[in-house]
Fold this sequence. Notes:
By secondary structure, the chain is of the alpha+beta class.
Amino acid sequence: MKSILLCSYSSSGFSWQDKVDAGLPTAIAVSSLIAVGTSHGLALIFDQNQALRLCLGSTSVGGQYGAISALSINHDCSRLLCGFAKGQMTMWDLASGKLLRSITDAHPPGTAILHIKFTDDPTLAICNDSGGSVFELTFKRVMGVRTCESRCLFSGSKGEVCCIEPLHSKAELKDHPITQFSLLAMASLTKILVIGLKPSLKVWMTFPYGRMDPSSVPLLAWHFVAANNYVNPTLAFCRGDVVHFLLVKRDESGAIHVTKQKHLHLYYDLINFTWINSRTIVLLDSVEKLHVIDRLTQEELETVEISEVQLVYNSSHFKSLATGGNVSQALALVGEKACYQSISSYGGQIFYLGTKSVYVMTLRSWRERVDHLLKQECLPEALALAWSFHEGKAKAVVGLSGDASKRKAVVADRMVEILFHCTDRALKKCPDQGKIQVMEQHFQDTVPVVVDYCLRLQRRDLLFSQMYDKFSENSVAKGVFLECLEPYILSDQLVGITAQVMKDLLIHFQDKKLMENVEALIVHMDITSLDIQQVVLMCWENHLYDAMIYVYNSGMNEFISPMEKLFKVIAPPLSAGKSLTDEQVIMGNKLLVYISCCLAGRAYPLGDIPEDLVPLVKNQVFEFLIRLHSAEASSEEEIYPYICTLLHFDTREFLNVLALTFEDFKNDKQALEYQQRIVDILLKVMVENSDFTPSQVGCLFTFLARQLAKPDNTLFVNRTLFDQVLEFLCSPDDDSRHSERQQVLLELLQAGGIVQFEESRLIRMAERAEFYQICEFMYEREHQYDKIIDCYLRDPLREEEVFNYVHNILSIPGHSPEEKQSVGQKAMQHIEELVSLNPCKAAELVATHFSGQVEAVIQKLQNPFLLFQFLRSLLDPREGVSVNQESLHASPCITEQFIELLCQYNPHQVIDTLQVLESYRLEETIQITQKYQLLEVCAYLLEKKGDVHGAFLIMLERLQSKLQQFTKESENSRESSSLKAVEEILVETIALCQRNSQSLNQPQREALWFPLLEAMMAPQKLSSSCAPPRLAEPLKSLTMQVLNSMAAFIALPSILQRILQDPVYGRGKLGEIQGLILGMLDTFNYEQTLLETTTSLLNHDLHWSLCNLRASVTRGLNPKQDYCCICLQQYRRRQEVADDIVVFSCGHLYHSLCLLNKECAVGTGNQARWTCYRCNSSNKAGKLSEKASEVKKGQLAQAQVKMSPSCPSPRGDAAAKKAPSELGLDPQQIQAFDQLCRLYRGTSRLALLTELSQNQSGESRRLLGGSKSSPALNSIFQNENFQLHLSPPPLSED
């Protein structure tokens, strides 16, 4: 509902300040009169005209009794009860203004009257005081003396009641069986009670609140609601943001049953709840916003701000300020937003008492709501709202009475008035000058709305008479009107249209050249409103074939003439062998569909043919199709022109049409005769005519085969015709359309034509024609599956499918062992051909089904390269073939044979392959690699064998040879290309030494590293003085790399001693290695400096962390209040109980026993951890997390301070004795550590250094071909949120 003001407010000018010294308003009660209580103890009585009728009481009495805190008027508006802030009550006669009773002893003195309520019994009233007690007041008159007897219904010592609401019934419901109980609802601070006052006091229901905000206001409201043809009272109550509805019923035995209804969840806290009617409720939230709610759908209809009312609150009475404030803190907290006495409802109106005036809220009637939108010129919205009233879907409806038909008639009349108003307004405000587009847009906003609602109201007479006449005055409006009718005609919502409107409609669309729209409209129109001659002429001129067929069929019951017209268009180009245009193809398709509809009894393009015409139409169509010549036939026309034309146009679809038609021929003798006649004509036309392609001929015989295969077949076809077709399709001399002819013959056989042929002759002809799919079809019928393998291998288009076929035969159950054996033998015979076709699939096939015949397969593969491809696919898992090596019976000889072939055809992949292979012998493999001079592979195998020294010697030999080559190239002043090879071999050799040095002793390490160092320094000794720079510099760099690598495994003094023992350097040539030695010393100094810096940083971080941890643990807390947030009692009052006080970092304070009762403790003994009950419940947290790192501010606040009472706890010593001896963090230290982590976000330096050292050591230990090493999955550097903070840690507050 868009911007519809449901609620209207009026400020009632109740001005009394000029007449009496009344003071400020404090309470209001409304019946046929309006009573307002004031702060000076006066009760002012106004009538409905806002005139002051009575001023009850006096300021002197007000000074004695205090302000009026509650008012109540009885049902006949004859008595008024006043409750005062100091506890007194008075009863007044509203007719005479006399004081009838002054009640001072009905309840304990010193408490204010919060509520006073009349019941339906005029002698019975209920009051509620600020002590939380509820009293029943019985009024009697004995011997002319008026008395009042009081009875306590509920004592405030058992729970303070702050709201009461007796059940009031209207005059028409006074005989309702529930009224005899005089029900009363009471809301305390913890629960709801429903009691019956009559015939005896009885509690019928109690309902606890559950968790809620202690400051929220309890609310109660009764109303009689109709449900399931019964009217029963419903009690609505809430405290906070959830409204509960309770349905109260009385059963046959006289007992009362209370049933929970669907409750209402809100996003705001309520301070008032009021029923407008049984379906509409009005809610007032804590920020003084009114919410109008539909109770059944829970839809919010309107939200209104009423802050300008300046609503009067009853806080002072709930705090009992007039009697010294002697109320509980919990009741005073509830009273902060209490406005019970400031809001009153009567007769569908709600009165709000403001500080200066009274505001009245009521729902607008349905007419007022519609008129309100009309005044704002929101015509579509007004019609939509009125239609919702018409359909009974509107919410908060006021002013509509009577049964449904009467309500609809009233609303429909109003909608017709609005439609006329819309029409006149659109014509009146039409722009006289301007573009046509502007005028069209103007009428597009109005005319479609008028048309739509006229059709919804089923007022076609109004639409096509008065409305159409009005819009016809303007040509643009008339065009828009006619275009608006199109969607309703197409959806068959508008069938009956006057002849004049129909004529104008067709002319309008024809003028705008929207002929496709005209065709769609014609086929949905009533044919009696059309000029048939004119429409047929228009359709033929504009190629509207659907419309033309519809007019012929529906207007003249003529079904053959449209066919003749369409045949005349498509027959000439087909008979001449020309290709059809796109329009002619569309016409041919329409003709096929039209013939299919006629033969199936359906009308074209929509609906059905009348049942009495169906047999006649079928016969006419068959007679038309089997005509020997057309009506205007020339001498050159071929026989059966209509069937020939359809066969040439689309053979397959025409035969499908006939097949669908033949399905309906059961016991119709004449139809069966037509069926045989058409089949004979088809055979005569297609077999004797050479113009048809093999595909077309095959379609015919496939069609015949399906018809002959039916169990109730009555057709007769000469078998020799099938033999002729077989000869025609299997002609080996005709290579054209080979695939097409094979597919046609296959479809013919699958359709049941196999029974028409001799199978042996069919197989011979198929093999001669190379129809391998036909052969496969025949072999499969005879279960000769092994021969099908030959069919796949011979067919170049399907040879790859042979692997799946063999696998399926050998795997899928259902085939006999003999059949599987024959297929397996055939596959083994062609194994070489299969391997050459796809080595991977062949290897997978062998591994799956021939795992025990691997050696036999190898013997059959004579081609070495073919054998190499097969073994690589079989043994190398990187080829992607899923082979289970355990089930594969492959001996080490086979693996070694594959390795030898690999050395021949792909030597660069030998090492990578050896890393993934398993079943080979090292000695034999080493011999193979030595045979083919693969030194690198040989070194790898020796290292794997455990001969590290042997592997090192081979690598050293390779390095020395490359160094010699490099030296020669450099001395001859040529560009050296072997330096890169030297570097690569040196890196591999260093890696070999590093991998194995961890497991060797010191002499063994020196046996590896010193020969390597000597090999690198030897070229520098030969001619050090005349060595060119291109030779010296690279060698020095590589030698330094060796020294840096060996320094991790060989002590520095040993390295220097070995260098000095060298004869060359021992004779005064130390200057040549001075650079190497200085480089080693620089590396040592750098590492020493790095170690000292790291140690300093770690010590600084540790000192900073411990300082902040100590500061966080020792920081004190300041509670927000001095009472427990659960029991709402000051902790000083419970000092006599051995209970601890727990204070949280959020500022909330609790007794530890209260937290235990609310299950807010995790753990036992001294290590118990607490969670803040109030923060946890307000944030609606789920499970309490036990991890300290998941504690969030405002959700699960950890307890930081625990104070013990002055008297020692008897449990203290026992708990101390049971304390565990292990050291650990207590809850306060845990939270302090969490705050420290939040203060210094990011990863610590120690964690970074640890991660770096682990990564470096892991890389140094990685084997050359080890597949087990994997990257650290939990590395902190792989975290996408990792940030490197280079700034110093923040300073914490002391």
